[in-house]
């Protein structure tokens, strides 16, 4: 019984995360300002990272966890660089 509940909840989480990624991608394309696009990019990489974690839980493979860690690190660095670019107009001083 609990394996069936876990399977259905993982499937539902994957559907909702894919929907959230689609909405974030729409905001990246449609966003009226650069700040909206940066925030949508943040949401997109966090949802992608969470989707990989849910896949890792479902399959039991540790590769998904390592990839999601790398996505989290690279996404954070990209967000900091874009925020610095939007504030000062340059990334490297």
Plain-language structure description:
- This protein is mostly helical.
- The chain has one domain (2-88): Orthogonal Bundle (Helix Hairpins).
- It is built from 3 helices and no strands.
- The protein has helices at 2-30, 34-59, 63-88.
- The chain starts with a helix and ends in a 5-residue tail after the last helix.
- The mean pLDDT is 91.
List keywords for this structure.
Helix Hairpins, single chain, 93 residues, mainly alpha
Can I get a quick summary?
The chain is mostly helical. The protein has helices at 2-30, 34-59, 63-88.
What is the total domain count? 1
Oligomer: single chain
- Measured as a percent range, the helix fraction is over 70%
Determine the N-to-C terminus distance. Answer: 58 Å
What is the residue-mean pLDDT, rounded to a whole number?
A: 91
Summarize the topology:
Blueprint: H1 2-30, H2 34-59, H3 63-88
Helix pairs in contact: 1-2, 2-3
């Amino acid at each position: 019984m609990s394996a069936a509940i876990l399977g259905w909840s993982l499937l539902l989480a994957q559907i909702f995360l894919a929907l959230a990624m689609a909405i974030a991608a729409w905001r990246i394309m449609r966003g009226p300002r650069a700040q909206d696009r940066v925030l949508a990019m943040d949401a997109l990489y966090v949802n992608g990272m969470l989707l990989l974690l849910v896949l890792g839980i479902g399959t039991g493979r540790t590769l998904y966890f390592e990839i999601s860690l790398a996505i989290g690190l690279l996404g954070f660095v990209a967000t900091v660089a874009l925020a610095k670019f939007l504030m000062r107009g340059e990334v490297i001083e």
